[in-house]
Each structure stands twice: as C-alpha cells, then as structure tokens.
Amino acid sequence: MKEEWDIYGVCKCGWCEEAPFGRLVHIHKEVCPECGTHKSEWTLKTRKWIPKHKIIIKGHWEDKESK
Ligand SMILES: [Zn+2]
C-alpha cells in the first residue's frame, strides 16, 4: 500500500502504471494492456492510491452479572 505521491502514466481507459523517474519512456510497455492505446496517448499524472476505509465493527459493553 503506497502512502506517497508517485507519477503514473495514465491511459484514457483508466489503466495506469507507475512511471519510473516520471518518464513514460521508462514504462516498459508500448501499448496499454487494457485497451491497446499507444503510450504516446497516455498522460502523466501525480497520484496516489487511496484505499477504502476498513469497516469499523461496532460493539457494545457487556457487564458480567454480579452474584
Ligand atoms: Zn487503456
């Protein structure tokens, strides 16, 4: 899970891959693996992945009955 901002090559279909040194040329793919769009059509964006929040399970107190 990444916490920092990184530079990604982003395809118009939504696919993205981290661009080493912020350069598309360093992504070792010529076309998008999802839709086949050539890398010259990709855009560079600085982004980070935001994971969904974990589900908080609510609880309650239970007192032991005194005898
Ligand atoms: Zn694509």
Provide a descriptive summary of the structure in words.
This protein has 67 residues and is mainly beta. The protein has one domain: Rubrerythrin, domain 2 (Single Sheet). It is 0% helix and 19% strand. It contains no helices and three strands. The chain has strands spanning 6-10, 16-18, 43-47. The protein has a three-stranded antiparallel β-sheet, with no helix packed on it. The protein is rod-shaped. Zinc ion binds next to loops.
Q: Summarize this, please?
A:
The protein has no helices and three strands. It has 67 residues and is mainly beta.
Can you summarize the main beta sheet?
3 strands, antiparallel
At the third CATH level, what is the topology name? Rubrerythrin, domain 2
Number of DSSP E strands: 3
Shape: rod-shaped
The count of domains is 1
- Arrangement of strands in the largest sheet: 2-1-3
The parts where pLDDT drops under 50 for at least 5 residues are: none
Query: Roughly what fraction of the amino acids lie in strands?
Result: 15-25%
In CATH's first tier, which class applies?
Answer: Mainly Beta
**Which kinds of small molecule does this entry bind, naming each only once?**
zinc ion
Order of helices and strands: EEE
Individual helix count: 0
Q: What is the CATH-assigned architecture?
A: Single Sheet
Oligomer: single chain
